[in-house]
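User: Before I run my own analysis I want an independent prediction to cross-check against. Here's the chain; please return only the structure tokens and, at the end, one sentence I can use as a sanity check.
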Amino acid sequence: METIAPAVRISLSAVAAACLLLGSPTHRTEAQETRISGLFFGDYYAVVSHQDDAVDGAHGFWARRMYLTVDHRFDPTWDVRVRFEALSPGDFQTSAALEPFLKDLWVRWRQGEHQVLVGISPSPTWNLWEAQWGYRHVEKTPLDLYRMGSSRDFGVSVLGSFDRDRTLRYHVMVGNGAGVRSETNKGKKVMGSLQFFSSRGLTLEAYADWEDRSGEEERTTAAAHAVLEGDRGRLGLMATHQLRRIRGAPNVNVDVISLFGVLDTGSRTNLLARWDRLATPIPGAHGIAYFRMAPTSRGHFFLLGVDLALAERVHLVPNLEVVTYDDSALSSDVFLKTTFSVTF
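Assistant: Structure tokens:
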């Protein structure tokens, strides 16, 4: 999750003003169309066991995320999106009200099978993997959870497909490397994804990025994933490697393998399971929002859940998350959660 600087926070009045400006009928013509949508999700959580005594035994409610999105299409070629997000701190100690900030702010030009986006837009880092996992409201994807990249960046994206059947697709982005925050250094970030979609339900993706960070640090990331989808569910496998080079310090490697499965059991119920192998310690893992982990040991992450569709856009997901460590001196982290999700 990105850390949001106060400079990019905005008031609720600004949110309302933007919705009124883009959504008002007085700003519409025959060729134009405006759509307002939203999402929110959160949990009741209980930390049954944790290697950090400050977190062990914690329980309560939190709202983990809220979206309010305004999409406006000027014509078949041009459209724009403004999305506001609000979220809890998720650090088990900060008491603060949810404050909205800009999550998306882009304008798009489309021509045939190709698109160009300028502004704050989704990066290719885990955009496809998150969509295929399908349970962001339950837990983040590995690259996101272990803070190996950012879901958004401010820059220019070019994406599309090389054929009309959209079998072979691409997504390339050049950005500040600062996520939704303001630029503070001379470095930039280059990201690229190549995707293959089979007519038999198989999806393959190869991803790579290079980032010139502040503090004389460079990061290089490579990831690959495969997802097989059928009538009753889907299976996904992903592997990622990140190399962090800091001048005057040893290189740091971050390696993760992830496997997930989703089974549609019928009667509006899905079963979901996931396993992540933390092949290296995860730097900064003690700062992961809503899910503090030990940064000093390799380990395993397990997730089990049941998705109950109360309505088409209302879901309740009881789930269990467990982290075990290779270091036997560390006790396991055990989280029990009941996650709710609403889209509109």
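Sanity check: Residues 1-10 have pLDDT under 50 and may be disordered.
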